[in-house]
Each structure stands twice: as structure tokens, then as C-alpha cells.
Amino acid sequence: MENNQTEKLNRIKKSVAKRRVRKMKRFYIHLVFFIAVNIVVAAINFKTTPETLWFYWLTLGWGIAILMHFMSVFSLKDWESRMVKEMMEKEE
Fold first, then answer.
1. Cα(11)–Cα(68) distance, rounded to whole angstroms?
2. Which of 31, 50, 55, 63 would suit a FRET pair with 75, their CA atoms being 20 to 30 Å apart?
3. 3-state secondary structure at position 30
4. What does the alpha-carbon distance between residue 38 and residue 52 come to, in Å, rounded to a whole number?
5. Is the dihedral of CA 29, 31, 36, 38 positive or negative?
6. Would you state the pLDDT for residue 13?
7. How far apart are CA 21 and CA 70, in angstroms?
8. Would you put residue 71 in left (φ > 0), alpha (ψ -120 to 50) or beta?
């Protein structure tokens, strides 16, 4: 009985860890695209209309989205860990 619970606990821990790694991977991919696209857009802005800087609007808007994505992936880490632990203790 105890061995079965240990195996179940290990599967849950592995599942949670995999989900967190996927979330982190998606954030880093999002960040790379943010940087690459903003470099290209800034280059286009400086090349075509250097007297009017408009690229920063895209950077600002998308930057807010990046910040929210970052917070959803990294800031909730401790809360999520506590909740998983609490739920597992309730099952015992």
C-alpha cells in the first residue's frame, strides 16, 4: 500500500515538474521572438522614418505582455508548490 502511494506521489511530482518546464520553455521562446521582432521593427523604423520613432509603442505593449507571462511562469512558483504539497497532504 505504501509503495503504491509513493509511486503515485512520484508520478504527480514528475507531472508537475514537466508542466513547469514546458511553461518555462514557452516563456523563453516568447522572449526570443520579442527581442528578435523588436530589433527588426526598430531597424525598419530607423531606416524608413528616423525622425519619427514609433517602434517603442510595439515594444511597450508587447513588453507588458512579456512581463505578465514572466509573472505567470516564475512568480507563482512558490504558491503552486505550496498548493501541490497541501493537496497531496489532504489525500493522505
1. 30
2. 55
3. helix
4. 16
5. positive
6. 84
7. 13
8. alpha
Residues making up the chain, counted from first to last: 92
Residues whose CB falls within 8 Å of the CB of residue 16, separated by 6 or more in sequence, listed in order: 80, 84
- Give every CB contact of residue 27 below 8 A, 6+ residues apart in sequence: 69, 70, 73, 74
- The tens-digit pLDDT sequence of the chain (92 residues) is 567 888 888 888 889 889 889 999 999 999 999 999 999 999 999 999 999 999 999 999 999 999 999 988 887 666 777 777 777 777 76
**pTM of this prediction?**
0.74
CA dihedral 23, 25, 28, 30 (to 10 degrees): -70
Residues sharing a CB contact under 8 Å with residue 44, sequence separation 6 or more, in sequence order: 55
